[in-house]
Amino acid sequence: MKTKIDWVQKFHDRFLDKLSEIPSYSTLSFSGGIESSAIFFGLVELGDPPLECVTFRVGNEDTRDTYYARKICKYYHVPLIVVDIPILTRTGLMDEVEQVIDVIGIARNIDIQSCHAYMHMIPYINTEYLVTGFYEDVHYEANKKLSIKYRKMKKGQLDPFYFQEYYKFGRECIYHGQTRTGKVHNYVVIEKYLNSKGIKLLTPFRDSELFDITQQLTFEDTNYHNGKFKKKWFITQVMFKEYFDRFGNDTNSNNMHTQGLKQYHQKVLLHNTPYKDTISVYNRIKNGQRSVLEKNSALTLF
């Protein structure tokens, strides 16, 4: 392995220290994406692979997530629990969404869809603790708005100091469980849901020492490698390069909120409705207006 640059070496060492604190009797929420794989590979380096892993699929259809999760778990002889989320009628899916909203009290897409997945996984988790890759974007936040601002900065249309402060502020908000606008972050919402079901959430990426390391870095430091945009490069190309090369999942950036789950909710809940986004349906459910949505729902299938 190539010698790690100083800050990556520090991040790697502290990350392993953080992983060493995870109780052995824990379950890893394992999508086969970058963050959950980094946790898995780090535990392997420590000589203490996960006791078990859990993931999901929608309607018995394997995805890139399940492909990589199976491949990695098989190689290391770690039990993988793949939970099938059943395809329901609109009324049936609304019943489950309503159960989620009753706990979290929020009608946002990612919150509800992620908690819905965990609703089905929780009965199969055999331990008290669930380890997740949440809070990864504390270290390398990258989104459309940031990319636009970055391009403006490169063109001289935005002050570099302002951009860096904007980048730092966004990651600081995430670290403290908030969005830039001060709303509660979906990580906090999902943890609330899991806690209500007796599951304790462990998030090794949320650590003050790791946070201090990456808060000193620029957007280019954390998101560009050899002059090209490559989010999470220091994890896939340096820290755990040999593992990601072995399994080929360095481009699998999915998380537990996958396209399959999102599309399932869209196709079932938006069918025969005037709404263009599931959040409109979620809000009607939250506000006790299900009767408006249940018309012609009996035969609505995915």
Features:
302 residues, alpha/beta, Rossmann fold, five-stranded parallel sheet, disordered C terminus
Give an account of the 3D structure:
By secondary structure, this protein is of the alpha/beta class. It has one domain: HUPs (Rossmann fold, 3-Layer(aba) Sandwich), CATH 3.40.50. The protein has 16 helices and 7 strands. The strands form 2 sheets. The chain has a 5-stranded parallel sheet, with helices on both faces. A two-stranded antiparallel ribbon has the order 6-7. Strand 2, helix 3 and strand 3 form a beta-alpha-beta unit. Helix 1 runs antiparallel to helix 10, helix 5 packs parallel to helix 9 and helix 12 packs across helix 13. The radius of gyration is 20 Å and the shape is globular. The C terminus is likely disordered.
Low-pLDDT parts are 298-302
* Reported CATH architecture: 3-Layer(aba) Sandwich
Please bin the fraction of helical residues.
40-55%
User: How confident is the prediction overall: mean pLDDT?
Assistant: 91
Rg to the nearest angstrom?
20 Å
The first-level CATH class is given as Alpha Beta
> Mind summarizing the main beta sheet?
5 strands, parallel
Order of helices and strands: HEHEHEHHEHHHHEHHEEHHHHH
Instruction: Please work out how many helical segments DSSP would assign.
Output: 16
| CATH fourth-tier homologous superfamily | HUPs
User: Into how many domains do the coordinates divide?
Assistant: 1
Instruction: State the CATH topology.
Output: Rossmann fold
How much β-strand is present in the residues? Answer: 5-15%
Q: How are the strands of the biggest sheet laid out side by side?
A: 3-2-1-4-5
What shape does the CA trace take?
A: globular
- Helix/strand class: alpha/beta
